[in-house]
């Protein structure tokens, strides 16, 4: 059985980025992204009502880490580590099968600069080497070609296309599942 027992939140670094724990001071940046229809176009989640809802969300995320349920990082540039520009992380961890779902989002000002690719590479390595995951999966909206392309670039393979398996805002949506196996297993 997989367990996630980190004594403190693992901060990760890449050439340009700091991947760090969510803090309450990130609430405004996260709220702005979660109500931005450009950011959320293919993220089929309800928009937050207010800043308080986001603060509760951050607290729940951090509690989830402490309970070993999820691991989600703020993406920030090294030159300004207090400024959240996106997030990436694991949730829906299937401990019995050593699988976790990865997800990410980024403020549009930083799109097409290789930031998600850089963060994804680091978090995939962490997932396989430090978390001992066997499989990382991603669930995307079928219209999200940018996400599909970045997953394929990082070695993910399409495992499934589900027809109308997700109900959101009065309609049933299709979804695609991509998977990446741990090359060391």
Automatic annotation (TrEMBL):
Name the species this protein comes from. Pedobacter chinensis
* InterPro entries noted in UniProt: Acyl_CoA_acyltransferase, GNAT_dom, N-acetyltransferase
UniProt keyword list: Transferase
What name does UniProt use for this protein?
N-acetyltransferase
**Top-level lineage group:** Bacteria
Q: Where is the N-acetyltransferase domain?
A: 17-174
PANTHER family, alphabetized:
GNAT FAMILY, PUTATIVE (AFU_ORTHOLOGUE AFUA_3G00765)-RELATED-RELATED, N-ACETYLTRANSFERASE DOMAIN-CONTAINING PROTEIN
Q: Name one GO molecular function term.
A: acyltransferase activity, transferring groups other than amino-acyl groups
Q: Does the keyword Nuclease apply?
A: no
The cross-references to Gene3D superfamilies, in alphabetical order and at most eight, read: 3.40.630.30
């Amino acid at each position: 059985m997989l367990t996630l027992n980190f004594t403190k939140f693992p901060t990760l670094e890449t050439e340009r980025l700091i991947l760090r724990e969510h803090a309450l001071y990130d609430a405004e940046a996260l709220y702005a992204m979660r109500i931005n229809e450009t950011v959320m176009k293919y993220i089929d989640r309800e928009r937050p009502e207010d800043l308080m809802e986001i603060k509760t969300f951050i607290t729940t995320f951090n509690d989830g880490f402490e309970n070993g349920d999820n691991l989600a990082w703020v993406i920030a540039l090294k030159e300004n580590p207090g400024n959240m520009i996106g997030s990436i992380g694991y949730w829906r961890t299937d401990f019995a099968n050593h699988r976790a779902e990865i997800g990410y989002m980024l403020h549009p000002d930083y799109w097409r600069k290789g930031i998600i690719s850089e963060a994804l590479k680091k978090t995939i390595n962490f997932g396989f080497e430090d978390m001992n995951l066997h499989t990382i999966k991603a669930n995307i909206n079928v219209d999200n070609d940018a996400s599909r392309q970045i997953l394929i670039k990082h070695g993910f393979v399409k495992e499934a296309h589900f027809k109308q398996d997700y109900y959101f805002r009065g309609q049933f949506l299709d979804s695609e599942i991509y998977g990446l196996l741990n090359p060391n297993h």
